[in-house]
Amino acid sequence: MNDINHRRVHANGIWMHIAEKGQGPLVLLIHGFPELWSCWKYQINHLAEHGYHVVAPDMRGYGDSDSPQDPESYTIFHLVGDLIGLLDELGEEQAFVVGHDWGAQIAWNLCLFRPDRVKALVNLGVAYMPRSPELKPTEIFFKLYGEGLYISQFQEPGVAEKSFSKYDSLTVLKKLLLVNAPDIIAAPAGVEIIDFLHTPSSLPEWVNLEDLQSWAEKFNATGFTGALNYYRAMDKNWELTAPWQGAKICVPTKFIIGDKHMGFKSFGTENYIKGDEFKTLVPDLEVVVIRDAQHYIQLEKAEQITEEILSHFRKKSIICATH
Known about the structure:
By secondary structure, this protein is an alpha/beta fold. Helices cover 41% and strands 15% of the residues. The protein has an 8-stranded mixed β-sheet with strand order 1-2-4-3-5-6-7-8, with helices on both faces.
Protein backbone atom coordinates (compact mmCIF):
# COMPACT_ATOMS: atom_id res chain seq x y z
CA MET A 1 0.00 0.00 0.00
CA ASN A 2 3.06 2.24 -0.04
CA ASP A 3 2.01 3.84 -3.32
CA ILE A 4 -1.40 4.88 -2.00
CA ASN A 5 -1.29 8.62 -1.34
CA HIS A 6 -2.78 10.21 1.76
CA ARG A 7 -3.86 13.78 2.44
CA ARG A 8 -6.46 15.80 4.30
CA VAL A 9 -8.88 18.02 2.43
CA HIS A 10 -11.34 20.62 3.66
CA ALA A 11 -14.89 19.68 2.71
CA ASN A 12 -18.24 20.91 4.06
CA GLY A 13 -16.59 22.63 7.01
CA ILE A 14 -14.56 19.64 8.25
CA TRP A 15 -11.18 18.12 7.46
CA MET A 16 -11.40 14.73 5.77
CA HIS A 17 -8.56 12.26 5.39
CA ILE A 18 -8.53 10.58 2.00
CA ALA A 19 -6.51 7.75 0.50
CA GLU A 20 -6.12 7.91 -3.27
CA LYS A 21 -4.43 6.16 -6.13
CA GLY A 22 -4.51 6.14 -9.92
CA GLN A 23 -5.55 8.42 -12.74
CA GLY A 24 -8.71 8.48 -14.79
CA PRO A 25 -12.43 8.70 -13.99
CA LEU A 26 -13.07 9.21 -10.29
CA VAL A 27 -14.33 6.37 -8.09
CA LEU A 28 -15.45 7.17 -4.53
CA LEU A 29 -15.38 4.27 -2.05
CA ILE A 30 -17.52 4.92 1.04
CA HIS A 31 -16.97 2.72 4.09
CA GLY A 32 -19.43 1.74 6.80
CA PHE A 33 -19.49 0.89 10.52
CA PRO A 34 -17.00 0.37 12.12
CA GLU A 35 -14.55 0.58 9.22
CA LEU A 36 -11.89 2.90 7.88
CA TRP A 37 -10.65 3.75 4.39
CA SER A 38 -8.40 0.65 4.37
CA CYS A 39 -11.35 -1.76 4.19
CA TRP A 40 -11.16 -0.90 0.47
CA LYS A 41 -7.42 -1.43 -0.07
CA TYR A 42 -7.90 -4.37 -2.45
CA GLN A 43 -10.38 -2.35 -4.50
CA ILE A 44 -8.18 0.77 -4.40
CA ASN A 45 -5.22 -1.06 -5.90
CA HIS A 46 -7.11 -3.04 -8.51
CA LEU A 47 -9.45 -0.27 -9.66
CA ALA A 48 -6.43 2.04 -10.02
CA GLU A 49 -4.70 -0.61 -12.13
CA HIS A 50 -7.73 -0.59 -14.42
CA GLY A 51 -7.53 3.14 -15.13
CA TYR A 52 -9.51 4.85 -12.36
CA HIS A 53 -8.67 7.62 -9.92
CA VAL A 54 -9.77 5.94 -6.69
CA VAL A 55 -10.50 7.94 -3.54
CA ALA A 56 -11.46 6.34 -0.22
CA PRO A 57 -12.13 8.81 2.61
CA ASP A 58 -12.29 8.24 6.32
CA MET A 59 -15.86 9.38 6.76
CA ARG A 60 -16.89 12.03 9.29
CA GLY A 61 -16.34 10.63 12.80
CA TYR A 62 -13.73 8.08 11.73
CA GLY A 63 -9.95 7.73 11.64
CA ASP A 64 -8.03 10.84 10.65
CA SER A 65 -11.12 12.85 9.62
CA ASP A 66 -12.79 15.29 12.00
CA SER A 67 -15.10 13.76 14.55
CA PRO A 68 -17.74 16.13 15.97
CA GLN A 69 -19.24 14.86 19.22
CA ASP A 70 -22.81 16.11 18.71
CA PRO A 71 -25.16 13.59 17.01
CA GLU A 72 -26.85 16.56 15.32
CA SER A 73 -23.69 16.87 13.19
CA TYR A 74 -24.25 13.44 11.63
CA THR A 75 -27.48 13.88 9.69
CA ILE A 76 -27.69 12.51 6.18
CA PHE A 77 -27.42 16.11 4.93
CA HIS A 78 -24.04 16.45 6.67
CA LEU A 79 -22.78 13.11 5.33
CA VAL A 80 -23.91 13.68 1.74
CA GLY A 81 -22.68 17.27 2.02
CA ASP A 82 -19.23 15.96 2.94
CA LEU A 83 -19.10 13.97 -0.30
CA ILE A 84 -20.31 16.90 -2.42
CA GLY A 85 -17.64 19.05 -0.76
CA LEU A 86 -15.06 16.36 -1.49
CA LEU A 87 -16.07 16.20 -5.17
CA ASP A 88 -15.77 19.97 -5.38
CA GLU A 89 -12.38 19.93 -3.67
CA LEU A 90 -11.19 17.29 -6.13
CA GLY A 91 -12.48 19.39 -9.02
CA GLU A 92 -14.77 16.63 -10.27
CA GLU A 93 -18.29 17.11 -11.55
CA GLN A 94 -19.19 13.44 -11.29
CA ALA A 95 -17.95 10.18 -9.80
CA PHE A 96 -18.59 6.49 -9.87
CA VAL A 97 -19.63 5.56 -6.33
CA VAL A 98 -19.35 2.39 -4.23
CA GLY A 99 -20.81 2.15 -0.72
CA HIS A 100 -20.86 -0.51 2.00
CA ASP A 101 -23.11 -0.68 5.08
CA TRP A 102 -23.58 2.94 6.29
CA GLY A 103 -21.57 3.96 3.25
CA ALA A 104 -24.28 2.38 1.10
CA GLN A 105 -26.96 4.31 2.97
CA ILE A 106 -25.06 7.54 2.35
CA ALA A 107 -24.56 6.63 -1.31
CA TRP A 108 -28.30 5.99 -1.81
CA ASN A 109 -29.02 9.45 -0.45
CA LEU A 110 -26.24 11.03 -2.51
CA CYS A 111 -28.02 9.63 -5.58
CA LEU A 112 -31.38 10.78 -4.24
CA PHE A 113 -30.30 14.36 -3.50
CA ARG A 114 -27.69 14.92 -6.23
CA PRO A 115 -28.03 12.40 -9.07
CA ASP A 116 -26.25 14.90 -11.31
CA ARG A 117 -23.00 14.16 -9.44
CA VAL A 118 -23.08 10.33 -9.77
CA LYS A 119 -22.28 8.41 -12.97
CA ALA A 120 -23.18 4.98 -11.60
CA LEU A 121 -23.55 3.27 -8.23
CA VAL A 122 -22.54 -0.06 -6.72
CA ASN A 123 -23.93 -0.61 -3.23
CA LEU A 124 -23.09 -3.46 -0.90
CA GLY A 125 -25.25 -4.98 1.81
CA VAL A 126 -27.83 -2.27 2.54
CA ALA A 127 -30.75 -1.92 0.15
CA TYR A 128 -32.65 1.30 -0.52
CA MET A 129 -35.77 1.03 1.62
CA PRO A 130 -38.98 3.04 1.34
CA ARG A 131 -39.42 5.70 4.01
CA SER A 132 -42.31 5.01 6.36
CA PRO A 133 -44.76 7.94 6.25
CA GLU A 134 -45.76 7.35 9.88
CA LEU A 135 -43.10 5.64 12.01
CA LYS A 136 -39.55 6.73 12.78
CA PRO A 137 -36.85 4.11 12.16
CA THR A 138 -36.16 3.49 15.85
CA GLU A 139 -39.89 2.97 16.45
CA ILE A 140 -40.01 0.37 13.69
CA PHE A 141 -36.93 -1.48 14.94
CA PHE A 142 -38.10 -1.44 18.56
CA LYS A 143 -41.53 -2.69 17.56
CA LEU A 144 -40.06 -5.56 15.54
CA TYR A 145 -37.00 -6.56 17.55
CA GLY A 146 -37.18 -4.92 20.98
CA GLU A 147 -34.64 -3.01 22.99
CA GLY A 148 -31.90 -5.62 22.55
CA LEU A 149 -31.36 -4.82 18.87
CA TYR A 150 -27.96 -3.20 18.32
CA ILE A 151 -29.56 -0.14 16.67
CA SER A 152 -31.78 0.41 19.70
CA GLN A 153 -28.85 0.00 22.09
CA PHE A 154 -26.77 2.55 20.17
CA GLN A 155 -29.31 5.39 20.53
CA GLU A 156 -28.57 6.91 23.95
CA PRO A 157 -25.32 8.95 23.91
CA GLY A 158 -22.66 7.49 26.16
CA VAL A 159 -24.35 4.14 26.86
CA ALA A 160 -22.74 2.05 24.12
CA GLU A 161 -19.44 3.86 24.66
CA LYS A 162 -19.49 2.80 28.32
CA SER A 163 -20.20 -0.83 27.46
CA PHE A 164 -17.53 -0.82 24.74
CA SER A 165 -14.98 0.56 27.24
CA LYS A 166 -14.99 -2.73 29.15
CA TYR A 167 -12.95 -4.13 26.27
CA ASP A 168 -9.90 -2.94 24.36
CA SER A 169 -10.64 -1.55 20.91
CA LEU A 170 -9.19 -4.59 19.13
CA THR A 171 -11.59 -6.90 20.99
CA VAL A 172 -14.54 -4.62 20.18
CA LEU A 173 -13.64 -4.76 16.49
CA LYS A 174 -13.24 -8.54 16.60
CA LYS A 175 -16.71 -8.82 18.10
CA LEU A 176 -18.12 -6.49 15.44
CA LEU A 177 -16.76 -8.71 12.66
CA LEU A 178 -19.93 -10.70 13.46
CA VAL A 179 -18.25 -14.08 13.03
CA ASN A 180 -20.85 -16.75 13.92
CA ALA A 181 -23.30 -13.99 14.85
CA PRO A 182 -27.04 -14.69 14.75
CA ASP A 183 -29.15 -13.52 11.82
CA ILE A 184 -30.67 -10.81 14.00
CA ILE A 185 -28.09 -8.87 16.06
CA ALA A 186 -30.14 -8.49 19.23
CA ALA A 187 -29.13 -9.24 22.82
CA PRO A 188 -31.40 -10.82 25.44
CA ALA A 189 -33.15 -8.48 27.87
CA GLY A 190 -30.73 -6.73 30.20
CA VAL A 191 -27.64 -7.72 28.21
CA GLU A 192 -25.40 -5.24 26.39
CA ILE A 193 -24.95 -6.04 22.71
CA ILE A 194 -21.13 -5.91 22.93
CA ASP A 195 -21.22 -8.46 25.78
CA PHE A 196 -23.60 -10.65 23.78
CA LEU A 197 -21.44 -10.74 20.65
CA HIS A 198 -18.92 -13.57 20.39
CA THR A 199 -15.18 -12.83 20.39
CA PRO A 200 -13.73 -15.14 17.72
CA SER A 201 -10.83 -17.29 18.91
CA SER A 202 -9.29 -17.01 15.44
CA LEU A 203 -9.86 -14.53 12.64
CA PRO A 204 -11.31 -15.56 9.29
CA GLU A 205 -8.80 -15.66 6.46
CA TRP A 206 -10.21 -12.51 4.89
CA VAL A 207 -9.27 -10.42 7.95
CA ASN A 208 -5.74 -9.02 8.12
CA LEU A 209 -4.71 -8.74 11.78
CA GLU A 210 -2.35 -5.84 11.07
CA ASP A 211 -5.18 -3.90 9.44
CA LEU A 212 -7.50 -4.65 12.36
CA GLN A 213 -4.81 -3.53 14.82
CA SER A 214 -4.41 -0.33 12.81
CA TRP A 215 -8.17 0.28 13.05
CA ALA A 216 -7.99 -0.36 16.80
CA GLU A 217 -5.24 2.25 17.18
CA LYS A 218 -7.42 4.82 15.40
CA PHE A 219 -10.43 4.03 17.60
CA ASN A 220 -8.18 4.24 20.67
CA ALA A 221 -7.46 7.81 19.60
CA THR A 222 -10.97 8.87 18.52
CA GLY A 223 -13.28 6.66 20.55
CA PHE A 224 -16.45 5.21 19.02
CA THR A 225 -18.77 8.20 19.53
CA GLY A 226 -18.47 9.52 15.97
CA ALA A 227 -19.25 6.11 14.49
CA LEU A 228 -22.20 5.57 16.86
CA ASN A 229 -23.60 9.02 16.09
CA TYR A 230 -24.66 7.78 12.65
CA TYR A 231 -27.26 5.61 14.39
CA ARG A 232 -28.29 8.45 16.71
CA ALA A 233 -29.20 10.64 13.73
CA MET A 234 -31.50 8.06 12.14
CA ASP A 235 -34.73 9.58 13.44
CA LYS A 236 -33.58 13.08 12.52
CA ASN A 237 -32.84 11.79 9.02
CA TRP A 238 -36.39 10.47 8.83
CA GLU A 239 -37.70 13.96 9.66
CA LEU A 240 -35.41 15.71 7.19
CA THR A 241 -36.12 13.41 4.24
CA ALA A 242 -39.91 13.83 4.25
CA PRO A 243 -39.78 15.86 1.00
CA TRP A 244 -38.38 12.78 -0.77
CA GLN A 245 -41.21 10.50 0.34
CA GLY A 246 -41.74 7.97 -2.48
CA ALA A 247 -38.88 9.37 -4.59
CA LYS A 248 -36.94 7.06 -6.87
CA ILE A 249 -33.21 6.45 -7.31
CA CYS A 250 -32.61 6.93 -11.03
CA VAL A 251 -28.82 6.46 -11.10
CA PRO A 252 -27.73 3.20 -12.82
CA THR A 253 -27.23 0.83 -9.88
CA LYS A 254 -25.85 -2.59 -9.08
CA PHE A 255 -26.78 -3.91 -5.63
CA ILE A 256 -24.72 -6.75 -4.18
CA ILE A 257 -25.40 -8.75 -1.02
CA GLY A 258 -24.27 -12.06 0.43
CA ASP A 259 -26.80 -14.77 1.17
CA LYS A 260 -25.31 -15.10 4.66
CA HIS A 261 -25.62 -11.37 5.36
CA MET A 262 -27.22 -10.59 8.73
CA GLY A 263 -30.96 -10.26 8.37
CA PHE A 264 -30.98 -11.62 4.80
CA LYS A 265 -33.72 -14.01 5.83
CA SER A 266 -35.05 -12.57 9.10
CA PHE A 267 -35.25 -8.91 8.07
CA GLY A 268 -37.06 -9.93 4.89
CA THR A 269 -34.18 -8.61 2.79
CA GLU A 270 -34.17 -11.56 0.39
CA ASN A 271 -37.84 -11.20 -0.51
CA TYR A 272 -37.56 -7.42 -0.77
CA ILE A 273 -34.58 -7.32 -3.16
CA LYS A 274 -36.14 -10.01 -5.37
CA GLY A 275 -39.56 -8.35 -5.39
CA ASP A 276 -41.13 -5.53 -7.37
CA GLU A 277 -40.94 -2.71 -4.79
CA PHE A 278 -37.13 -2.44 -4.82
CA LYS A 279 -37.06 -2.32 -8.62
CA THR A 280 -39.85 0.25 -8.62
CA LEU A 281 -37.87 2.54 -6.31
CA VAL A 282 -34.59 1.92 -8.20
CA PRO A 283 -35.69 1.45 -11.85
CA ASP A 284 -32.20 1.02 -13.38
CA LEU A 285 -31.21 -1.84 -11.07
CA GLU A 286 -29.20 -5.04 -11.22
CA VAL A 287 -29.23 -7.30 -8.13
CA VAL A 288 -26.41 -9.75 -7.42
CA VAL A 289 -26.60 -12.27 -4.55
CA ILE A 290 -23.25 -13.87 -3.72
CA ARG A 291 -23.29 -17.31 -2.16
CA ASP A 292 -21.68 -17.92 1.24
CA ALA A 293 -20.85 -14.24 1.72
CA GLN A 294 -21.53 -12.36 4.94
CA HIS A 295 -21.50 -8.71 6.00
CA TYR A 296 -17.96 -7.48 5.16
CA ILE A 297 -18.34 -8.63 1.60
CA GLN A 298 -15.71 -6.34 0.03
CA LEU A 299 -13.13 -8.00 2.28
CA GLU A 300 -14.46 -11.54 2.25
CA LYS A 301 -15.02 -11.72 -1.52
CA ALA A 302 -12.58 -8.98 -2.54
CA GLU A 303 -11.75 -10.24 -6.04
CA GLN A 304 -15.35 -11.05 -6.96
CA ILE A 305 -16.66 -7.72 -5.68
CA THR A 306 -13.97 -5.83 -7.59
CA GLU A 307 -14.93 -7.62 -10.81
CA GLU A 308 -18.60 -6.77 -10.22
CA ILE A 309 -17.68 -3.12 -9.70
CA LEU A 310 -15.53 -3.01 -12.83
CA SER A 311 -18.14 -4.68 -15.02
CA HIS A 312 -20.84 -2.23 -13.93
CA PHE A 313 -18.71 0.88 -14.38
CA ARG A 314 -17.34 -0.29 -17.74
CA LYS A 315 -20.85 -0.97 -19.02
CA LYS A 316 -22.08 2.44 -17.92
CA SER A 317 -19.03 4.14 -19.43
CA ILE A 318 -19.74 2.49 -22.80
CA ILE A 319 -23.41 3.49 -22.65
CA CYS A 320 -22.46 7.09 -21.81
CA ALA A 321 -19.91 7.20 -24.64
CA THR A 322 -22.49 6.09 -27.21
CA HIS A 323 -25.00 8.82 -26.32
